[in-house]
Amino acid sequence: MSTKSNSLKEKLTENFSEFSQLSDYSFMNSLNADPQSTKDGNDHKPRSVYSGHYVPVVPTAIPEPEYISHSKKLFKELRLSSNLTKDQNFCRFFSGDISVANYPMSPVGWATGYALSIYGTEYTQQCPFGTGNGYGDGRAISVFEGLFNGKRMEMQLKGGGPTPYCRGADGRAVLRSSVREFLAQELMDALGIPTSRSLTLYVSRSEIVRRPWYSKGSRYFEPDIMIDNQAAITTRVAPSFLRVGQIELFARRVRNNAHDEALNELKMIVKHLIHRNYKDEIDNEISIESKVIKLASLYRSRLISLIANWMRVGYCQGNFNSDNCAAGGYTLDYGPFGFCELFDPRFQPWTGGGEHFSFFNQPFAAAINFKTFCSSLSPLLSGNKQDQGKLDQIEKDFSELMNKELKKMWANKLGLEHYNETLINEFFNLMVISKADYTILFRKLSEIPDNSYSLKDSFYFPIDDELNNRWEVWLKNWQSILKKEGNIKAKSALMKSLNPVYTWREWMVVPAYEEAEKGNYKKIKELQDIFSNPYIEQPSEIDQKYNRLKPSQYFNYGGVSHYSCSS
Ligand SMILES: Nc1ncnc2c1ncn2[C@@H]1O[C@H](COP(=O)(O)OP(=O)(O)OP(=O)(O)O)[C@@H](O)[C@H]1O
Ligand SMILES: [Mg+2]
User: What are the catalytic residues (predicted)?
Assistant: First the structure.
């Protein structure tokens, strides 16, 4: 009996009509549509959107879509059968032709507006109307919301054609950036870092868009040519795609007395955020003021943990504006991101990013986004001084708690129970002077070596005797603390669970999207395999290929070591 019910429970969704039965829309049912929008979602030209939480939009399908890949892991988690990828309607739907939607699915998707603050400075000029009312999802369109094993998930096409927020751009994403986002989400999830997830990746055999990019071997900082790219659509999945910038938009409207419904719309979107991302942790029965305070405190914990995790694996988001900061506490928008190879605290692959969004500055950028988040919640406290005091305190404590978490992370990354300032400062100095590869060095240290010879393959240049001696001294000090603290074998195992073997190396990903441009998807699948298990050493043939220092020719190489945000 129990076997039977288990097998029933395990039944996978096999075809598109079963898939449609999973749909259950709360976004469109419980929030306000822009009153000026049309129900049919035929709304693809830039225009001002003054109110409402979303605009109904029908995506523009990419012509002649070809399936490239899907996330086997996410499919399993959602209990979707891989057979679905062979279903014609599934393919049409996730390549943008949602006219195939069956009841209870909606044949219309939605795009949302959001505000933009760059490192705390509010921008309004970023839209064609100079007001900020034309800024939001320009090419991201949500098309599905459903219940999967009781978990509510939203599915969003990236590159699904223009929306009213497109600001005159084409609404498309190129194959290169879609491959990057698809693979990066897979890797981040496997690294154990909260993230939007990859569902599927389709490319158009016939639609071409032009973008500035780098010529082969370019040493230019900014793109030097225009190139033709195939359009692609990748679908990402998350409990919500709400951003700090979105809460900010509604709060700005309250502050500016933009319309009578402004405060109510802010309240609705915050309640929606709680419902989507914090439902299990916030009691529905408490007052809105108490909910807001709890929300700020929960988001603070999630954001702090997220940033510490980014630092742990060498991830640099690159463009950590309020509009690229998910209010649910996970990584969102894999645009000009990168992973640090040669250790550099100022690592920043995006040419437009500046130092403020660089690798080691991310805790500060996060603190600023958190401040924006808190001040956006403030109007919901109805001027109550005591509640405002609590919210202010939560915001004020961000940096101290962030520091604490970082110290814990650095200590654990080195197998230590406690942060040791002298030891860790000397370690950072040595990493910089020795020109170490961030991932390889930490992984080699996870073997807890007792001599510097074991580290030599993690340096980009041979180190001299003096430096060598410094490493020897450091290793000795480190080992003696480790030994005092306890079981070395257990420490090594812990370090290996925090320090991956394999990481994102852009020069390995470039051939994957370049081959894909020629219709060969083998390298994408290979990388997907490697990225699915980044903490486990692969057999030596595979290991030699993927566990390597960045070759010298790829330094200062346009499109590899740095890139513009032309996606
Ligand atoms: N080709 C395009 N067509 C329309 N809008 C675009 C296009 N490229 C970028 N945008 C819009 O410009 C804004 C800034 O772009 P950014 O690179 O931060 O985001 P993105 O990578 O497109 O999307 P997301 O943050 O949803 O992952 C976003 O609102 C985005 O929707
Ligand atoms: Mg973005």
Answer: 323
